[in-house]
């Protein structure tokens, strides 16, 4: 489990402050694993009763209809950074404070509903019943509170959890900070992954100027009452702070309009396909809303702000493979005083593989009407003993023709002999590319012609709103451009 949203060192917060933690389930190579649709949080750690599944007035469809096999169960424990095995529970004083806080909110809500009903002072200050051992144990376990629904979407392999730690480090003689240890288990209670956050110092020192998290900008409280949605706000005040009235950036003594220059320290992943479309996490410091990440000369739109240390964007396509410099549109590289701070992203040419996978899925969709794994479809074609029409495609897959374009044309030739009603030629992959998008980028004029003859949609757009014609023109494939213009 990769935990983002907290700087590796010097993180500080308060018991009243919500930290936007991003949890990602990743492989050893750092690639996200989108194999489970939802993540279930511990019920007692859900901050508001109305956000718990059992209390929801209108439970979301996913809470009632999702399969348990598609749900991961999250466990979370707060530990001391200086003594990892030491599990932290909320102290008695903080339990009382949290209870009073909750009681005040309830009374304020009731007062708004019925202004004639005054809250009782006795109720407000009613002490916790310490004789009820079970109640006390449960309250102490609420060292961590999540201000979101009990079941959250996890289909992309990550989610954002507004999180609050309810006890101070000094109450446990902790000098380094608290770490949050996460474990994810599947429906059989098998541990799938685990991970830990960097140390977070929970303090009541309001005057400290050290690194803080989650306090840079206050949000309306209602924003946490609904599921988190990443969004891009090009008109934000922070973005406008980068520009003066003439539209030029303002650079002053190593800052932009008074803000420290943003620094990139790491990209996850640090390489990706030339056709783009994969999610890239940018780690660093001094990030603010409104920054636009640029790969080479191509901006990643939108670039989503998660925290002062984390940005997320969708990788834009590139005309050629190779390394490119990653920078910010609002912060030219000339401002960087140290060349060692330049970070590179490496584009790899995976277009052939992506094209073959999509071609096999197009054939598989035509065969069965269902989207299947490309590898299974290839095995079915190679082992298709009962259908003589598979012979040419099977031979191509087994021998691995030197002419890759001819290989693909032979494979999709099966569409002409499969007698089914399924129309799959315009099938799109995760990046919303059709075969025509990738063929145009590769300059496969013959394949593009075949696809057009088979009725592929010329105007379908990918994640960036690009058609096949965009890619052909951008990569300088003149013959393909002329072909697509004729339609």
From TrEMBL:
Signal peptide: none annotated. One of its GO terms (biological process) is regulation of transcription by RNA polymerase II. GO terms for molecular function: double-stranded DNA binding; transcription coregulator activity. Residues 102-130 are annotated as: Disordered. Residues 261-348 form the IPT/TIG domain. GO terms for cellular component: nucleus. It holds the Pfam family SPT23_MGA2_DBD. Keywords: ANK repeat. SMART domains: IPT (SM00429). ANK repeats lie at residues 431-463, 464-487. The keyword Cell division does not apply. Gene3D superfamilies: Ankyrin repeat-containing domain (1.25.40.20), Immunoglobulins (2.60.40.10). PANTHER family: CALMODULIN-BINDING TRANSCRIPTION ACTIVATOR CAMTA (PTHR23335), CALMODULIN-BINDING TRANSCRIPTION ACTIVATOR, ISOFORM F (PTHR23335:SF1). This is IPT/TIG domain-containing protein. It comes from Rhizophagus irregularis.
